[in-house]
Hints:
Layout: E1 14-19, E2 26-29, H1 30-36, H2 38-45, E3 54-57, H3 62-74, H4 84-100, H5 104-121, H6 128-137, H7 143-155, H8 158-166, H9 175-190, H10 200-203
Parallel strand pairs: 1-3
Antiparallel strand pairs: 1-2
Helix pairs in contact: 1-2, 3-4, 4-5, 7-9
Amino acid sequence: MFQGYGLTIFGKRISRVFVGKDTEPYIIHHDLLSASSDFFDKALNGRFKESGGDVYLPKQKSETFDAYQRWLYSGKIDMSGQTLSKALWLSCQYYLLGDTIQDEGFRNAAIDNILDHVASSQIFPADLSYVQKVYHSTAKGSILRKLVVDFWLFGSDPGWFDKFEDQGFQGEFPSEFWFEVSRGLVKQRVEKSQAPSLYPWVSNRCQYHHHKKTLKCT
């Protein structure tokens, strides 16, 4: 079931998606794929549609696209058997894939998966490799950037800074990241009397979602 619209959108046409260097394509219902992803909609139905219903994603990985295909048909991201750190890292990869193929439903599912793991573990994916991956793979204004910055603003303690100072990592974080953290800290100080009692992703998870096509949170 395609979760974004709550409808079964399969149709009879089939599309093939070639991912990375794999010669064996993913076989997915054309209508399901184009209804969920703006990128695939343009690639399969637009003016410059791919010949024969084949689409090539040479820079993507099969491990990531596997999850997308399963999500398309089930509406769920399965993390069973994954360690916490692996699940958080994969969720980041899934969001970035959703960003590339312009599928806001999949992006939202990836964000929810991150937040569910954070809620159950109280461990925040905000180390150097995570921040670098997010900032090097997204543009200014990205919701995933906002989430990582908020993890630092609301989930960090002095030990986080001590750790990275001791390891000599402070200069390796993207400058845009430190700017956003600094601006957020100033904003918190100015609005201290109105500071939320809950984490912002707990009080309003929807602010980290995209809802141009999918239903808004209730």
